[in-house]
Amino acid sequence: MMLWWPVFTFLGTCWWLVPLFVMGAYSPPFLDFIETASVTTFPTTLFDALRGTSAWVPYVDPSWQGGRALITTPYAALNSGLLLLMGLVGLMQRANPHRLFLLLSVFLGLLMVTAGHLGSVQGWGAGAVNELLDGALAPLRNVHKFDPVVRLPMVLGLGWLVESAWRSRASTSLEFPGRSLRIPTHAILAGLMAVGVVGAAIPVLSGRLAPTSPVSETPDYWQRTVDWLDENSGDSVALLAPGSGFAEYVWGSPLDEPMQYLSASRWAVRNAVPLTPPGNIRMLDAFESRMSQGRGSAGLATFLGRAGVRYVVVRNDLTPGNDVPDRSLVRQALDGSAGLRLVRSFGPDVGGEAYVESDEGKRLVVNGGWQDDFAAIEIYEVTSPSTDAVGADKLPVVVGGPEDLLDLTDADLLRDEPTQLAADVGSGSQPEGPLILTDGMLERERFFGRVHDGASSVFTGGDVRRSGNPTMDYALPGGSRWKTRARLDGAKRLSASSSMSDSNNQGGARPGHLTYAAIDGLDDTEWVSGFGATSSAWWQVDLDEPTSIDQVEITLGESVDSLKRIRVVTDAGSSDVVELGAGERKMVPIEAEGLASWVRVEDVAADPGQLALSEVHIDGLQVRRPLVLPQIPEEWRSPDAIQLRTLDESRTGCAEVEGAIRCMADRARAAEEPRGLDRRFTLPTAATYSPKLIVRPRAGAALEALLQKGQPLNATGSSTAVDDPRASGLATVDGDVGTTWTPEED
């Protein structure tokens, strides 16, 4: 048995072992960018490993309805516990001829499944095993795969128990006054087993084993799309847009893209498991960023052409979600980019009217007005695709990442010539072509579970990692030294219980709400604690030197929706609890004894909620947060060009739909650098540069007054819901029926 059992166990697991090793021979190291040991081992408790519910996916994805039922349906959990108990009893019976072997198998399986579990009850060395599963043992990270080592002995134990009981014909006598009742325990045991097995199989019997939204047939317009691309693409690439975690469409969820099983031509997509090198992922993310913002680009077509993309296939039939850019933004970005034109469309219209009217004549706005009719699939063509061969005697060298190439193309610093990254310049080599220094490859933490809005604000020394992934970002080989990092001047450290700028913030990261926003000297920026936090929120600044602090001025952010009870705490003393409303400013006295080395503002409400701080003012404290560019080696010359850009992935919450500007406050996003940029870099040698600036006006009263200067009448509004002049009071007199004044809601 010791010989043939392991052999057949190995053969039974070849269905995943063989493809794993085959893929490992060709695929980029995508394991760093998907599930982590902290995720795969959180359900591997001893009880769950015994009853077979140690797979992590059903805990986070309700569409896996078969596994979900076993952990959420009471009777299913009870049935599995019953079968677990009977299986263990059968294994441990002395009459079982294979008791020792089967028990050893169970113990070995439990060790393999549970060894990396971290929790209130965990085994010796669990932390080290967990780290190994994120390192050398990464191919075995999904430890639920070892469940058959536990399950097979348990099934045999269950069968042995029933067989031995039935063979013995055991019964129990119950004595009552005047009579005796004999109960056949073997029949009861068999009945209990039957109830347990049938109960555990109810998800199968009721048709709830397969994932939800099954696909029985792919719409024929997808086949027509594929046929057209196969005929016209040649060796070029069709890029599916926008990116999405998986292929989840309004007509069903195949999870794998229809192009995968229908097409013979080349195609690409940014999804949750990108089987492509990190540099390619970063390039695709630059494209997806423009789609999320709805921003057109002068260089987008050239950027795509450089990558071999000729067609952009817009999938308007994707299921809407908070990790899928709105169709209106995608169309706005593509229509606003030179060199891209709509050439074909397939399928029925999706979307619909921006509003509907009820029987009583009331108008109901759909999707905030961001609603229009779109063909299910629209194909945009890059009108000037890159040729198969491009001549260049010297390659431009870019100090940055692949994402910088789009901005450099926008600025006409790059065209269609090949480009080399500084990370790819060999040790001891020097760039021969033009050298361009950028601030674009930023030190951020990435939450790999999201395609869009998964990157944190730029990391400052001492920032806490939030995602639990051992890999911080889609890292280029040798790219760490070429990153741009944030630095604090005037304070030692900024920290918080959580921030909406964290990579793992629910609903996506919002870098504009970082901890620095509470001490940047700007009243219109704010730090906001993470959404959905279960503990009280706090914000803290560690000072460079101990300081005497007897009062702190607090301005509460506008994002809070209720009165807040806060307290200011230092290591030298604390304040009384004070109450503030949204936007309220108050001087908070502190009863301090001695010097303080840190200051904390904390929410002391009984029910934890989100806390927002617009400004924390401490006399004599001025904090700046410059970004420090990578150091160019001394043996290299100074760069021929330097490109610096503000961290501005802001969104005004407005989109152009049917020729009209429609705005929603909940779609707006604050910028990480709302008032310009602050950069520090050192060059190997002295150099002279001619600056070229691209400026953009900032929405507000000053811009409205400037736009109306010299006009016979001026218009203002009591408020504006979003930072976009097209939604301000000016919209009422600008002569454009497509713009509308959008005030704040009460």
Strand content: 15-25%
User: How many distinct beta strands?
Assistant: 31
Overall average residue pLDDT:
89
Q: In one word, what is the shape?
A: globular
Detail the poorly predicted runs: none
Q: How many helices?
A: 19
State the end-to-end CA separation. Answer: 75 Å
The helicity comes to 25-40%
Structure description:
This protein has 746 residues and is of the alpha+beta class. It contains 19 helices and 31 strands. The chain is globular and about 110 Å long. The mean pLDDT is 89.
List the helices and strands and how they pair.
Elements: H1 4-12, H2 14-26, H3 37-40, H4 46-51, H5 57-60, H6 65-72, H7 74-92, H8 99-114, H9 126-133, H10 147-168, E1 172-176, E2 179-183, H11 185-200, H12 202-205, H13 220-232, E3 237-241, E4 247-249, E5 252-255, H14 258-262, E6 266-268, H15 278-293, H16 300-306, E7 309-315, H17 327-335, E8 340-351, E9 355-357, E10 363-365, E11 373-382, E12 397-399, H18 404-410, E13 420-421, E14 435-438, E15 485-486, E16 493-496, E17 527-528, E18 538-547, E19 551-556, E20 564-570, E21 573-574, E22 578-580, E23 585-589, E24 591-592, E25 596-603, E26 612-617, E27 627-628, E28 641-643, E29 654-657, E30 660-663, E31 679-680, H19 701-707
Parallel strand pairs: 3-6, 3-7, 12-13, 12-14, 14-28, 27-31
Antiparallel strand pairs: 1-2, 4-5, 7-11, 8-11, 9-10, 15-27, 16-18, 17-26, 18-25, 19-23, 19-26, 20-21, 20-22, 20-25, 21-24, 29-30
Helix pairs in contact: 6-7, 7-10, 7-11, 8-10, 10-11, 15-17
